[in-house]
Amino acid sequence: MLAAIWAQDQNGLIGKNEVLPWYLPDDLKFFKATTINKTLVMGRRTFEGMGGRPLPNRTTIVLTRDITYQAPAGVHVMHDTAEVINYAQSKDHTVFIAGGSMIYASLLPACNYIFRTVIEDSFEGDTYFPEVKWENWRLVKKVAGKVDEKNKFPHFFEEYERIHLD
């Protein structure tokens, strides 16, 4: 099963120079809790923007068109979306799509679930989440995140399930 997971500002912004344009520990905690012991799929630039190393206790797949790309030990490389979809269908756990924008656009039509963090603020950046046909999704859960001295931006966590194919 495939699921997409991302954080965005109120305008759909997801990145700036290959990294998140905000610091929100509550979302990082949510991301870790949701994806631990699962598989993450991301593009090369997103992977490198996260430090170019696999996250602990997760299988990492880098999806890239570059057939010469050499990932570090412990990271799998795939070259097309069909390969990712076949991999996900062979697993007994959720495989999470974790960015960037082109990877989301190519794999969202195959996803069954969406986990989205919405930050109720605006930031500057250069990467936006691709268009989602929200009529094909049903909101099943929405939880407010905590705001405190470390988590300065109001935010909420949403979970959607697919109700119609794109």
Automatic annotation (TrEMBL):
Statement: the UniProt record of this protein carries the keyword NADP: yes
Family, per entry: Belongs to the dihydrofolate reductase family.
Keyword Flavoprotein recorded: no
PANTHER family: DIHYDROFOLATE REDUCTASE
Domain DHFR: 1-162
GO molecular function annotations of the record: dihydrofolate reductase activity; NADP binding
Pathway: Cofactor biosynthesis; tetrahydrofolate biosynthesis; 5,6,7,8-tetrahydrofolate from 7,8-dihydrofolate: step 1/1
Domain of life of the source: Bacteria
Function recorded in the entry: Key enzyme in folate metabolism. Catalyzes an essential reaction for de novo glycine and purine synthesis, and for DNA precursor synthesis.
Keywords: NADP, One-carbon metabolism, Oxidoreductase
Name the UniProt record assigns to this protein: Dihydrofolate reductase
Gene that produces this protein: dfrA
Enzyme kind, highest EC tier: oxidoreductase
GO biological process assignments: dihydrofolate metabolic process; folic acid metabolic process; one-carbon metabolic process; tetrahydrofolate biosynthetic process
EC id: 1.5.1.3
